[in-house]
Specification:
Order of helices and strands: HEHHEEHH
Strand content: 5-15%
Shape: elongated
Number of helices: 5
Number of domains: 2
Length: 134
């Protein structure tokens, strides 16, 4: 479903269009959007030409789930750090959890900074390649 949405010029298809394009049953199409919505990969919208619901992707299709992950990773890092302190950072499990905590915090910070920079530069026009703001 995601590939079908990515490869349409409009970036959106109704359930009926997805069934025809993917050669699958309507039941198959009914489950996929919910899963992709929870990952912020697609969004539902009303089809402007009918009452049907469309599923759409846009230029921020990768940005939204990355940023959602960036918001969740610090909680995991904090939990790892707390358990590491309880176990003691000199114990093998405690040391492993402490390193995991530090790694997640560092990588998440880098990822968030990089994603925000990309978004500032390219989000207004996904075809932009100059790397500068207009």
């Amino acid at each position: 479903m995601l590939a079908a949405l990515f490869t349409t010029d409009s970036g959106g298809l109704t359930s009926a269009e997805l069934v025809r394009r993917l050669h699958v049953s309507p039941a198959s199409v009914s489950k996929a959007p919910g899963h992709l919505e929870t990952q912020a990969l697609v969004r539902p919208e009303r089809d402007p030409h009918s009452r049907a619901e469309r599923y759409a992707v846009d230029a921020d299709v990768a940005f939204r789930p990355v940023m959602a992950d960036v918001r969740n990773q610090p909680r995991i890092a904090e939990a790892c750090g707390a358990v590491a302190q309880k176990l003691g950072t000199t114990a093998p499990a405690g040391a492993r959890l402490e390193i995991t905590s530090q790694f997640l915090l560092h990588v998440t910070d880098d990822l968030a900074r990089s994603a925000r920079q990309w978004h500032r530069i390219y989000s207004t026009d996904p075809r932009k390649t100059s790397g500068t703001d207009d």
